[in-house]
Structure prediction request, 598 residues.
Amino acid sequence: MYQALYRKWRPKTFADVVGQSHITETLRRQVAEDRLSHAYLFTGTRGTGKTTCAKILAKAVNCRHPVNGDPCNQCDACLGIDNGSMLDVLELDAASNNGVDHVRALRDEAIYSPANVRYRVYIVDEVHMLSTAAFNALLKILEEPPAHLIFILATTELHKVPATILSRCQRFAFKRIQPGDIAQRLRYVAAREGMTLTEDAAELLARLSDGALRDALSLLDQCSGGGEINAEHVLDVLGLAGNLQTAQMMESILSRDTQAALLLLDKLYQGGKDVSALLGELSTLARDLLIRSTAPEGGAALLSGGYDTAAMDRLSAGVTPARLLHITARLQDTLAALPLSANRRTDGELCLMRLCDESLCGDLTALAARVTRLEEGGLAAAPGQPAGRQQTASAARSPEKNSAPAEPRREAPVTKAVDAPPPWEDPAPIGGDAPPWEEPVSDSRDSRPPLDDRDAPPPDDGDAPPPADTEPAPAARPAPVQTASAPAAAPSGGSDIWNRLIERYKDQVMPMYQFMLDDARGTLEGDLLTVRCGDDLTLESLDCEAVTEVLRSVTGDYLGRPVRVRYILNGKNDPLPREDKLEELIRQGKNYDAFTVK
Prediction:
């Protein structure tokens, strides 16, 4: 009968155990010097050798002819423990024997001396599955066991074992086995089994096993079946995409080419590739790119090693760590939800769409992506359009992008006597006790006479009026009193203070808040600056200490007195004006068709 490779090639001595020398050397020395403990606790992930070391230790303490702490594997005790006929060495599964009655029966049997060997050994696997009552029943005999009794407990979840049990055991932590050690063991087993295993296939199997040698041997067993076992054969048998196709998928995501990403997913899906395996490979690649971006010096040892330096350089060019972090987090969330998914292909497609276009996420990531596009000058790609084609289209729509901005258009002072200075000009200095947001009565650029002189009747000097085609002197020209017959008062509530200081506010806050400030309007009443927000998101975002401190500081410095700041939600029937934003976009020569102006 055929025996699985992980069972056939299970280590028989401490020297055969791979990657756990810090544990095997200690156990071998304890056996050789006869300094054995009554209870051991082996912890670590699956497939790292916990149960194997427990059996080797059980053979070593009962071996008739031990060799430097290792069992001889030739005496009747070693052979009986290997084939399971030695009743004094009992292996229990706590997952199926977790009740208090099972532990009581074990405790009643443990008091009897062994029949054929020196020690009675109980190997309890997955000990964390015992119930609270079972742990309490085990506690007493574990604290004061007979001299002939040894407990070896094994668990993958150490945090579930009570502290009272931990304090009575010698604890050994099994670490994940390095990919190089796993690949070396796979080549050794393949050579003994007559298999042709290539170097790249061994490294691929070692990476897929995630530090578990038992998993690596199971994968090798699955890929065997005649012929050469290379990396392509491993990918086909296990239903994986492969490094080249995974890198191609990541390149489509980073270039925001939704169509190419979906077509490649469909091609891989039709070829029998598993969606969760593909997303898992994408997650591993995104993690490598993120670590390489955030820790370029010391992060090389943390990489999976599945991609060469040239491919990593090509993929990471021009990508920010924030985007890589978003991609990795989104892939991890999708992978966690796939086991409960009704249609994994659909969930995979939705994940790729959100990765290519963050505005589809519907959370703060979408808002951050929108702000980034604003900062880049409105040249962000449309959903599903790669970056290269997007720049060409944007350049075609606005050929005058690189030309100098036109001189801002200003209204004549005759037609608009009172108007707040545009945001690109510094506010006029404050004079006297007049509020700083009020417009002065006369402008230095306007040569009209004072209002008192304009209202007085012209002097009667008996001269005839000048001819119609003769322009009168500026001092004698009557002012157009229809448009500015009296000095205009400051707007109710001092709303012009916001127009004067908006650019100063935006210079001192983060880019995301700059966009929020464009959607708000402020009014000043006394020492209270009221910020009216257009929606709940703007209100919740601006109402923070960082923005409030900037508004309070800039306004207070401008007025020369401290001010208070509050935030309110703007009424539905009182929409916020957007003329300033449109004029600013036109002035800067940007294509405002890319923005949505409500």
In short: The longest strand covers residues 149-155. The beta strands are 39-44, 89-93, 120-125, 149-155, 170-174, 196-197, 228-229, 520-525, 528-533, 564-569.
